[in-house]
Amino acid sequence: MDFSMSTSLPSLPSAAPQICTEYPRRIVCLTDETTEILYLLGEQDRIVGVSGYAHRPPEARSKPRVSAFRDANFEAILDLRPDLILTFSDVQAEITRELVLRGATVMNFNQRSIAEILEMIAVLSRIVGRPEAGLAMIEELRRGLAGIEASARAFPHRPRVYFEEWNDPLISGIQWVQELIEIAGGDVIFPELRSCGKAKDRVVDPVEVVRRDPEVILASWCGMKVSKDAICSRAGWEATTAVRNGHVFELPSGPILQPGPGSLTEGVRQMHAILSRVVGTGAAPGLDPLSSAR
Prior knowledge:
5-stranded parallel β-sheet, 11 helices, 14% strand
């Protein structure tokens, strides 16, 4: 059979279809980083609802709060009549699924590395019609990271760093955190866990932490206050260089565990300042140690 004779292409319209130039006008951000990015782009008026954890910038607190991180008020979200809802990662997969089932348009980002954070900024800036501003933001963030990396090259040595994202079980830092530690001047003690996106895959044995002997312990327990005493009193941990020298520090989870501009600016500067003090060089200008670090 000659199939070429049995089908035909539909005729094309005489005029090109009209291209829609509209962008989302009513956006609900269920994670902090997308909220911050839209504010930095000057597009905060598009935001009609945010997560209860939104705090960057402080003005975001004035927006209606419609979710926690793992739970959401679906009725309150839909009452805002959003034309786009922004979510993050597998942790919000069920929220995303339920919103889609209810007829909402949802974009779920899943950035886990510095490169992916920058890519997310580029995508979001295009979504709201500000691609040039997004690229400018990315270049500014890259310059800032390069400056910190250059400052860290002056360290007499790179201290071994254990970053603790959770305390029960012990969970080591996610990829962007490990990358930022290296930019800030440290060497992570669990580099093999870098690419493990799920927290359950980054669980570490307390005995192995002791064996690898961190010189610095940075802890940020994902929204919960860190107990330095609890860390130092773990069995065998008194033998680590970090505990012996009092180099156990808390980092607020907002800046460092937020996969967006906060971690690439405030978060990494705090880590660099702490590591500068540990190695005895002093913080670079404008990078003072975190006042609450202990």
